[in-house]
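Progress report, Aim 2. The chain analyzed during this reporting quarter is listed below.
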Amino acid sequence: MTIYTGATASPWSRPLPGLLLLGLLGSSGCVLTEERSCERDGKRYEVGEHFASDCNTCTCMEGGEIACTLKGCIDADAGRDGGADPKRDGGPDGGQPQCEFEGKLYVAGEAMPMDDACHRGCGCSSSGEIVCTAIECRETCDFEGTTYDRGDRFHDALRCNTCRCTAAGGENVVACTARACDPAGACTIGDTKIADGNSIVCADGCNTCLCNDGSWSSTDAACAPPPKVEPCGDRLRDRVDFEVMYRSADALAVEIDRVGCLNEAEPPFTLCWNERFEESAPVQTWLHLVGAGTQGCSSLEGGQQKVFDLTPLREAYERAYQSQHGTVEVHTQAVGEKSIRYEF
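Predicted structure tokens for the chain:
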């Protein structure tokens, strides 16, 4: 297995152990407010101001977030009854304060085995709190010019190796199978090159095309026409993950990634669009892959290859712009957020 270290960090950080971040975050993790103060229990605090919350200490952060330590608070009545707190009073022998992590106690000053993409250099403090070196938490990997989320599965440029963005050795990395890929023997299908010896679904949607030293060979089954792109309507709640393989003329080939849970053993997948063009140069639209539904379903494996017919987009363009020739920038919402230039 070949490991590639991701080059780009996500612009946000996860809360470190011992901190609880409260605030309004967008889907990308970016703070959606410009507030320079925080509010807790009806009181307002300036950025950088510290205040008490039960037995914990809180700090007002940039953007209106509040960061608090997460010490276990001892009930006042329990304290009067002589109850002991190892974080406050030390361990069983009355020694140094202790911290608990994953069921194990650590004494003050002891390093803790917490070393991943979001936590580094953690240890138990003299106050019984877990403290870590503040580092940027990365949730993405960069590979061959495309950014992938952690957990995404995808292929290299020649679709020769299968890769995944994953966490390893304290950071996010791209892990790929290690097949030798010879660009000299690659074959071209639509806008994509396929490595010698690899196969892919043909543009007709049912035959298999094999690259053999720069030339294609294929099976010769009779095929029904590929399904056409349809309006999405209210089906976006049933979206599934997919990867764009190639576009050839009006055919768009995709590989279904993490299917998860769908109604049927062989669900009817549909590629749908939002039925509008956003004005730009060229105009833009969005595609989504949806399944049959997610209620009362069973898990399915990914890796299925499907071909869809894009002609409804072309026909809609011809009606809207009174031209048989045009270009549409198609955003796929696929793994890696790949867009396609659809020219006709």
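The chain has a mean pLDDT of 74. Residues 230-343 form one domain. These observations will guide the mutagenesis work planned for the next reporting period.
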